[in-house]
Amino acid sequence: MNTAPLATDSLDTWLDYWSHVHVTGIDLGLERVIPVAEKLGVTDPAAKVLTVAGTNGKGSTTTTLAAILNAHGFKVGLYQSPHVYRFNERVKLRGIEVEDQLLIDAFVQVDQARRECDLSLSFFEATTLAAFVIFKDQDCDVWVLEVGLGGRLDVVNVVNPDVAVITNIGLDHTDWLGDTIEKIAFEKAGIIRPNIPVIFGGQQQIPQAILDQAAKSNAPLYAINRDYFYEAFEDGKTWAFASSGTTLKLPTGSLALENISTAITALLLSGLKLRQEAIAEGIQLAKLPGRFEIREIQGKTVIFDAGHNPHGVEFLLKQLRNYLKYNNKYKEVICIFSMLADKDINSVVKLLKEHIRLWKIAPLAVPRAAEVTALAEALSGEAVEQFNKVQFAFKSALDQADNHQLILVCGSFHTLEAVWEYLEECQ
What superfamily would CATH give domain 11-285? Predict the structure, then answer.
């Protein structure tokens, strides 16, 4: 499709158009993107820019950053990916998803600019540039940007940040980013710019590639458990944040303290003026679907978590152990489980299985889905029930679980999505 839709056409028409303009959906590299971004005037915004890369925790960190800034009254543009229900979730102004027409108007500008440059753009490139156009046109005070894949060659990296955050480094997307922690860290470190603060939020030794890039860029590097710290209090409702010259007692919120403390550190280093009461308010407002999301459904407690690699699942288990500690009526966990075939299913299962009493597995309804036989093989020796659809597995768990059993839905965002769609249909 070479003929562009009109400004009066629907958002779905435009999204379909962008999915056909370029030969591939993912095409890492900035050679085509930079000229278009420069023509659009989005590479060096007047706003403060906070860019977040990392293997896991990007969504929680960017959500927390935006929520705290919104609580302070800043006009915040938040860009995240992927979305769960609607494409509009990717672009928020003051915490609210943008309307279709704002996206469409931005798409018109992006398409015109890429045609003037005689360049094609992938779906992700075009839609990301549209978000930047919206933030520029809406005169946002702060841009909070989540890197899609890697960092160095991701389209988000066309914008120069004032603060760079790398949440952690794990093995994921190895076909694109490399098959070692150091190779992946090199890609993530691509968001670092000369003389800007860099925050590393991983509970691991800082990869050498990040140390090297920070030193080369003369960028001061701040690390969790070295330059800033967090500690949960016994009541489970409050915690302490501490860094050089700053100590705060804050409410726990619904997202992981590791990511909240990394977000606070980034804000303290941003030069923006902050108030403790607004930080506390933002933490309590920050919510993200599928990040240890706890819901009561038909009188049963259900936890949704999108962890889909060993690093993400370790994080899930840390939160699960903490939750069970303070909610000791739960003696067993029933797990609704499915994954994509290109993920490390065996490692994920190995981490989870000591905590799961019963597995209910089903194939995902997406092209990259793991076959149910592969899931069953990874779970050999475990108590397993097989279903044709994730929705049927979840319904079975709801019907079966007693008051001492917790239901955990995990393995992929697609697993969560299937359950969410089922719950929408039941309303």
Answer: Mur-like, catalytic domain (3.40.1190.10)
